[in-house]
Write a structure and sequence with these properties.
- The complex is a heterodimer of chains A (about 70) and B (about 200).
- By secondary structure, chain A is mainly beta.
- Chain A has a single domain (about 1-60), classed as Ubiquitin-like (UB roll) (Roll), CATH 3.10.20.
- Chain A is built from 1 helix and 5 strands, in the order ββαβββ.
- Chain A has a 5-stranded mixed β-sheet, with no helix packed on it.
- In chain A, a hairpin with a 2-residue loop joins strand 3 (about 30-35) and strand 4 (about 40).
- Chain B has about 200 residues and is an alpha/beta fold.
- Chain B has a single domain (about 10-195), classed as Rossmann fold (3-Layer(aba) Sandwich), CATH 3.40.50.720.
- Chain B has helices spanning about 10-15, 25-40, 70-80, 100-105, 115-125, 175-195, and strands at about 20-25, 45-50, 85-90, 110, 135, 150-155, 155-160.
- A 7-stranded mixed β-sheet of chain B has the order 3-2-1-4-5-7-6, with helices on both faces.
- In chain B, helix 2 packs parallel to helix 3 (about 70-80) and helix 2 (about 25-40) packs across helix 6.
- The two termini of chain B are about 25 Å apart.
- The interface of A and B includes residues 29, 58 and 65 of A.
C-alpha cells in the first residue's frame, strides 16, 4: 500500500504505525507522531494503530541540543 | 509600553495582556525570550536551574561578566535592558513532570527550550493533551542547511527545527543554527498570539 509520510507518498508493507517507524529507525519514545488527524505524544502505543492505504503520517523527532 | 514601537494598538493590546512560559534559559530559551521581548511580549515566566558558564557564550544571550550567575537572573537582567517595564518571572528551579503544568498554569503559550531529550519528551508529554499551545524545537545542531529548518503544527504542538540533527561530535550547538530555531519559536509564538499561522 501507499501512505503519505512526511508529505511524500511512500510504498510500505508495514501493518502498523509502530512497524513502519521501526523500519525507518524512528524511536517512538522520542518522537511526536500525527496519524489520522490524531497527535500522539512520545511513548504512545503505536502498535495498535493500523496503517491504511492513503493515510497521512507525520513525525517530528526530538533530538539533543538547545 | 512594550519595546516594539511598530505594533498596532490591537497587536499591542494582545501582546501586553498575555504571558509566555519558557522552559529552559539556554541557547533556545534565552534567545527566544530576547526575541519575544523585542517583539512586544511583556509578561514572561522563565524557568531554569543552571548557571552561566563560559561554554554558553557561543550561542546563549549572556555576557562574559555574567559567568557564574544563575541563568534566569542573568536573562532577566538582559531582558530588562531591552524593556525596563517587562514583567519577567524568573524561577530558579528544575522542572519535572509533577510541577510543569502548575508552573506554567497562567501562561497562554509555553516554549520548550531544553537541551536534553528526556526533558523535551517530559514537557511535550505533559502538554500534549492539555490543549495549551506548546512550541518545541529539535534538530538545530551544526552548521548550514538553514532550509531544512521548518515549522510543523501537530495539534496543539508546534514543532520547530529539522527534527533530525542532534548535538554530537561533528554537530556542536552554535549561535547561527540555534539562533534560527529560537527565532522561529518566538515567531511562532507571536503569530499564534496574534491569530496567525505559526
Amino acid at each position: 500500500m501507499k501512505i503519505v509520510y512526511q508529505g511524500e507518498s511512500v510504498e510500505t508493507t508495514a501493518a502498523t504505525v509502530a512497524e513502519f517507524l521501526s523500519a525507518r529507525g524512528v524511536d517512538p519514545a522520542k518522537a511526536i507522531v500525527e496519524y489520522g488527524g490524531e497527535v500522539y505524544a512520545p511513548g504512545a502505543d503505536l502498535a495498535s494503530l493500523s496503517l491504511a492505504d492513503g493515510a497521512s503520517l507525520d513525525v517530528f523527532r526530538m533530538t539533543a541540543g538547545g | 509600553m512594550s519595546a516594539n514601537t511598530y505594533l498596532t494598538p490591537e497587536e499591542r493590546a494582545v501582546l501586553e495582556s498575555v504571558r509566555v512560559g519558557i522552559a529552559g534559559a539556554g541557547g533556545l530559551g534565552s534567545n527566544c525570550a530576547m526575541h519575544l521581548v523585542r517583539a512586544g511580549v511583556t509578561h514572561l515566566t522563565v524557568v531554569d536551574f543552571d548557571v552561566v558558564n563560559g561554554s554558553n557564550l557561543n550561542r546563549q544571550f549572556f555576557f562574559r561578566d555574567q559567568i557564574g550567575m544563575k541563568k534566569v537572573e542573568a536573562l532577566k537582567e538582559n531582558l530588562l535592558r531591552i524593556d525596563p517595564d517587562a514583567d519577567i518571572r524568573a524561577l530558579d528551579m528544575r522542572l519535572d513532570a509533577a510541577s510543569v503544568r502548575e508552573v506554567f498554569a497562567d501562561c497562554d503559550v509555553v516554549v520548550e527550550a531544553f537541551d536534553v531529550v528526556d526533558a523535551k519528551v517530559m514537557l511535550v508529554s505533559a502538554f500534549a493533551a492539555s490543549g495549551k499551545t506548546l512550541v518545541t524545537a529539535s534538530g538545530l545542531a551544526g552548521w548550514g542547511r538553514s532550509n531544512t529548518m521548518r515549522v510543523k503544527k501537530m495539534g496543539n504542538i508546534v514543532a520547530v527545527g529539522d527534527g533530525e540533527t542532534a548535538v554530537g561530535a561533528d554537530t556542536a550547538p552554535s549561535s547561527p543554527r540555534v539562533g534560527i530555531a529560537a527565532a522561529m519559536q518566538a515567531n511562532a509564538v507571536v503569530a499564534i498570539l496574534l491569530g496567525k499561522e505559526p
